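Why should sequence recovery work at all? Because a backbone constrains its sequence more than one might expect. Tight turns favour small or flexible residues, buried strands favour hydrophobic ones, and helices have their own preferences. The token representation captures these environments compactly. In the example below, the structure is given first.
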């Protein structure tokens, strides 16, 4: 059984763009017929937080694209969800705004998101399935395996190496 999500308060100095979005959202919050606070809180919890690894050798815009794709595969983002604005991403990650725009254009070209002038960039379609969602049996089994590996004394690099080796056996040539 998966434990319920916990909501912890966000500090303005830690996530300035998130606090701004949250305060703006709460000021204009209306609950149309058929919706309610739970749906709106669920939408707020789907804000994606980009992490850029300058040492990875992967272009920054590609990292952004890959992170959005991963969020779509895992069900973190769903159709209709709004991506952070370029300005919000720049404030959170200190990267060039043109890099963010390039990543968003790439996602738009692939049909995953849609830019709506004056409104933002929204998810058009998901890449996920029931097998990759947060509550999937496969995820649960993988989490159990990860616990066993850590209990056996394996570190992150050891687990990564083992995973890559087994993946290569099952997907040769990739």
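From this structural description, the recovered sequence reads:
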């Amino acid at each position: 059984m998966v434990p319920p999500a916990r909501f912890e308060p966000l500090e303005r100095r830690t996530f300035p763009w998130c606090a701004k979005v949250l305060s703006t959202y709460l000021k204009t919050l209306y609950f149309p017929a058929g919706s309610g606070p739970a749906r709106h809180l669920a939408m707020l919890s789907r804000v994606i937080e980009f992490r850029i690894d300058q040492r990875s050798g992967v272009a920054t815009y590609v990292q952004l694209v890959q992170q959005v794709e991963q969020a779509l595969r895992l069900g973190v983002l769903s159709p209709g969800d709004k991506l952070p604005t370029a300005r919000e991403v720049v404030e959170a990650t200190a990267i060039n705004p043109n890099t963010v725009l390039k990543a968003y254009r790439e996602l738009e070209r692939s049909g995953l998101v849609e830019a709506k002038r004056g409104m933002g960039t929204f998810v058009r379609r998901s890449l996920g399935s029931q097998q990759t969602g947060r509550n999937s049996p496969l995820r649960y089994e993988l989490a159990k395996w990860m616990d066993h590996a850590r209990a056996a004394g394996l570190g992150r690099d050891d687990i990564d190496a083992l995973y890559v080796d087994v993946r290569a056996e099952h997907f040769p040539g990739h």
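A few observations help interpret the result. The chain has three domains: 9-45, 49-128, 137-170.
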